[in-house]
Amino acid sequence: MAHVVRQVAQSVAQTEAQTSTAHSSSLAFDHDRLAEISNNPRDHGVTRRVVVLSLLLSVVFGYALPVIDYKFFNTFLGGTHLPPGAIGVLLLLILVVNPLLRVASKKWGLSRNEALTVYITCLFSSMVPGHGSENFTIPNLLAPFYFATPENKWLDILQGRLPYWMTPAITEAGGLNKPIYD
Q: How much is the CA Rg of the chain, to the nearest whole Å?
């Protein structure tokens, strides 16, 4: 036990000594690291292969999610807080595809930023075609008109300020489209 304590104390002392000598050159280290990151395009996250992969996955989600939602009820691959479709793609990329690509060639593997970019695009592309958008977007566009009363004067506030294209409750002429929200 005493031997472990001595090793930890020596390691702490060495770290403190290195920190005090490296403190003066910390600006040069940061500049070198920044130059290293900015010279490697894969560290930025948005590369051609990631854009192509993200677009392909968006097309797959755009087609598959409505079919799955309406054929197999209550699956909601895109309409939950953490969409299982996007999580599945992330896990598949990290646990299966990326290790296989790295076995074939170190250059072929996706970087952390590239995998994160694919995941973020999958989050958005799985939300739009499924129940995620229709369960939240449409009700929020119509609810202020439905719940408007003479006491809260929401119609007076909204009707003059919202453009007609922003909600189906307002017609092109600026009038109210009552059958839509009643």
A: 27
